[in-house]
């Protein structure tokens, strides 16, 4: 009998999930007039995905630009009137009532200019929002709308596309709660994914603080690198977790009677 470091692996099963997955919807009302990508296409962050018809938003932008120019002219006129009124008021020519009237017109013109400036900024934003871009590097995993579809943003929840980040995937598994004292973030894990020839080495990332009262299990999560996209979301995964070793007395298997064909080489207590 001797003391030795012993590691008791913990087995678990789980499922592969995308690191991120986003359903992309229009930002403004209108008819979808162009979809630039299809299922399976890889996209880069900021790449155009689809476009809502821009004609109406271009027209509104032009209207707001003219409204801003008009508000600027009105403020210029009101400012000149106010300067003259102040000058004449100092000479006793303009009454207080007239002075108040000129001041009110100036204040109104200044407020209108602010409103016109805000409306112009909104019109520019709406035109920019007519083209929707990718939120991150990923791959298109769903296309639900074709050109010509009219969408009202306020009343429709239908996405146009689905984009997923798959260069890194997440494995979510359930582990029996009895093993919780032996688990820590950073615990080494060997992951065997169905359809992937070689197991992947990883580190345990997250241990959920909530224990499922029905199954007496706890959720664990870890990330796997997936640069060639060989690991697909939805695949089944077998996990072997390797907690920290513990010291235990051991003896050779041959010293203990046991079932024929037993391949264990050591017995530990």
Description:
The chain has 269 residues and is an alpha+beta fold. It contains two helices and 16 strands. It has helices at residues 55-90, 96-129, and strands at residues 2-6, 10-24, 30-35, 42-43, 48-52, 131-133, 138-143, 150-151, 161-176, 188-193, 200-203, 206-212, 217-225, 236-242, 246-252, 266-268. Strands 2, 4, 7, 9, 10, 11, 12, 13 and 14 form a nine-stranded antiparallel β-sheet that branches. It is elongated and about 120 Å long.
- Which structural class should the secondary elements be placed in? alpha+beta
Q: Low-confidence parts, pLDDT < 50 over ≥5 residues?
A: none
Q: SSE order in H/E notation?
A: EEEEEHHEEEEEEEEEEE
**Number of separate strands:** 16
- Level of helix content? 25-40%
Characterize the main sheet: 9 strands, antiparallel
Treating each run of at least 4 consecutive H or I residues as one helix, how many helices? 2
What gyration radius follows from the Cα positions, in whole Å? 34 Å
Rough outline: elongated
Question: What's the N-to-C terminus distance?
Answer: 10 Å
Looking at the chains present, what oligomeric state does this protein adopt? Answer: single chain
Percentage of residues in strands: 35-45%
Mean pLDDT: 90
What's the short story on this structure?
The protein is 26% helix and 38% strand. It is built from two helices and 16 strands. The model has no long low-confidence stretch (mean pLDDT 90).
